[in-house]
Specification:
Length: 411
């Protein structure tokens, strides 16, 4: 808080008490009922105003320094500080800078102001901000006929949105624009060829985006990632693709459950996409967005038990024992059990029906980046949907190969 101004009369009384006490600050302070530090402050102010042995200062000035010789004294005076600053009308204080002396007293202060926007300015700003705003998704018409004994699983794994690859380096060009078109067309094609079912699960299998922030490195291994543009651009494409996927599922299924599992490339982005979808479909009663924060997904459908994880923390071979332990009741009540893993970008089945559970990893729809291509990794590219019957287990699949996408890019 600023130090309150001290009147000339108070300063004169302080000097008189100081002189009466034989220039003893302790005695003078006691006589005035002041703290010794307060007395010292008043004496400094009195000296500035010429009340302690020099001629009174000129109006509007304060003593800067005093030099003396026998019989004479030179007093240097400087312009006294002006009147108290007031913020101009229509402005607000943006910031302040101050120059202070060794005692913390303000020598000079700079006040930064900015023009305060009027109500009309605010209205215009809000109007501009909402020019391209689209409200939450409107409820879509439910398909008239569906088979309530069917469940369609739509794996959306390892899309690595924002990944960048150069055809001359890895054989295939890939960027945000290509990814949005090729993956979007492929997933819609797969969904439109699935049977009409009572339930669809749109399962984000992890690594929806290639990078989790603008540093373009994996958080654990700190590997450098080849990315197309800023992370926010990739996030926008990822959310548009997920909306396109869920909308396509709504056209073929009575209800849709959405779950976005995190991977090693999108640990934080996965949660952001989940809550975006939760808000986007808040007015759609046929969509349920599961925002569970765990690395595992479990779902029981009649005699069918489904499980999934990205695969960067748990090996796929260990998932059956985890399912049996954490979902013991569902394990005992089901006949067909399937676990889906991702992360490795290629297809494999590592457990058979004889072990009570079929574990499967899935291909990714994207080409390889420079690092994986240079390391000699080989894997196909595809998107697919899997249809389960509540009493019979898996009954059909729809697969979309990405070979046509490679030919389109190469052309």
């Amino acid at each position: 808080m600023p130090t309150p101004e001290i009147s000339t009369e108070a300063l004169e009384a302080t000097v008189a008490a100081y002189e009466a006490a034989g220039r003893n600050q302790t005695h003078a302070a006691a006589a005035l009922g002041l703290a010794r530090s307060s007395l010292q402050e008043r004496l400094r102010r009195a000296a500035e105003r010429g009340l302690m042995g020099t001629a009174a200062v000129l109006p509007g000035y304060a003593i800067k320094s005093v030099a003396a010789k026998v019989g004479d004294a030179w007093v240097k005076q400087v312009r006294e500080h002006g009147e108290e600053y007031a913020v101009p009308e229509g402005h607000s204080v943006k910031g302040e800078s101050a120059l202070v002396d060794a005692e913390g007293r303000v020598i000079q202060k700079w006040v930064k102001t900015r023009e305060e926007p009027s109500a009309l300015d605010l209205a215009e700003t809000l109007k501009t901000a909402f020019v391209d705003f689209r409200p939450a998704a409107k409820p879509q018409k439910c398909p008239a006929v569906v088979d309530m004994d069917l469940l369609n699983l739509v794996p959306c794994n390892d899309w690595h949105i924002n990944m960048l690859s150069w055809g001359r380096e890895v054989g295939t060009n890939w960027d945000l624009e290509i990814a949005e078109r090729v993956i979007g067309d492929g997933i819609v094609d797969a969904i439109e060829r699935t049977p009409r079912a009572g339930l669809a699960i749109v399962l984000g299998g992890g690594d929806l985006t290639h990078a989790d922030n603008n540093e373009n490195r994996t958080s654990k291994s700190n590997n450098v990632l080849d990315c197309d543009g800023r992370h926010q651009k990739g996030l926008e494409v990822a959310t548009r693709l997920m909306v396109r996927t869920v909308d396509a599922a709504l056209r073929r299924n009575r209800e849709v459950i959405v779950r976005i599992l995190p991977g090693n490339h999108d640990e934080h982005t996965a949660a952001a996409v989940s809550y975006f979808l939760l808000a986007w479909y808040r007015n759609e009663p046929r969509v349920t967005v599961d925002c569970d924060a765990s690395l595992f997904f479990w779902y029981r459908f009649g005699q069918v038990m489904l499980g999934a994880t990205h695969g960067h923390t748990v090996k796929l071979a260990n998932m059956p024992s985890i399912m049996a332990h954490r979902r013991a009741e569902d394990w005992g009540a089901t006949k067909f059990r399937y676990i889906h893993g991702f992360h490795i970008h290629h297809t494999s089945k590592i457990a058979t029906e004889g072990n009570g559970c079929i574990c499967e990893s899935h291909q990714a729809p994207i080409p390889q980046d420079a690092w994986h291509y240079g390391a000699g990794f080989l894997s196909g590219r595809s998107l697919q949907t899997i249809t389960y019957h509540s009493r019979l287990g898996e009954i059909s699949r729809v697969r979309v190969a990405m070979l046509d996408a490679e030919e389109e890019v190469a052309a």
